[in-house]
Predict the 3D structure of the following.
Amino acid sequence: MKYNMDLEIIIDPGAGPCFGVSRAIQLAENILNEESELACLGDLIHNKTEIDRLIQKGLKSIGHCQIVEQSKKKLLFRAHGEPTSTYRIAETFEVTIVDATCPIVKQLQEIVAQECAKMKKVNGQLVLFGDINHAEVIGLKARCDGKIGIVRNPKDLETIQTAKPTVFISQTTKFQSDYNKLITAFKQKRKTDQTEHYPFKAVNSVCKQVAKRDKQLKIFLKDLDLLLFVSDPKSSNGNELFKIAKRKLPNSFFISSPDEMEKIWFKQGQKVGISGATSTPIWLLEETANRLKEMFRE
């Protein structure tokens, strides 16, 4: 049976791993090129296909309860960052830390610690826009001894007092547009509560590479007939971007690997876009494009 079909296939120029993820992968590969094995605390990135590739090179993921087993050995800390307690535990057991914490996250950890100290002096508060179970947020929360309010959307602001000096901070991987909505909603709440005289500051903490990724994706979708969005289901960034894509272009499909593509999705002459999360490697997007071409080759 012949499946030859004329498709125009375009890879999203704004897709691909962010700097922090690329740096973490490179650090891991540099070590694995010299050594047969390297332990990583948790999944290095939220992409099973890329993790499987690194496992073949000798990478293994361990939990916090297994840190003691890495005594006198190397242990990679991923780009999301770790609480200060994790560093202390590793040092106690003489673990050699390979710190792949994204420099942007590390800088934000320091900002959180500084702002927390300032707010403590004036009976103020820190409010963090982020996902409570995200590794980065757990690390940031630890820099403030857990004394930080975490909100996911404007509705969550109902639990935040306005009659206090307040500093807003965002998880680095959130979209700037969503952060702006949250800030606007809090300012409106202050106005309603008549508490505008209390000091307020919003820290510009969103990663510039991620900040406008939602808007860039919408532009990419404009002339497409179909989108293949390649991401791991565990990627919060991937899930958020796919929601945006699905609303803009209903003919969008979430896949974790090229094996999940189905011929029934495609029609003659379609313009097909391929995009992904900030944890999706470029090679996987390119492989998806190549496999799609092969799928309809005579």
Notes: Residues 8-16+211-295 form a domain with the Cobalt-precorrin-4 Transmethylase; domain 1 fold (CATH 3.40.1010.20).
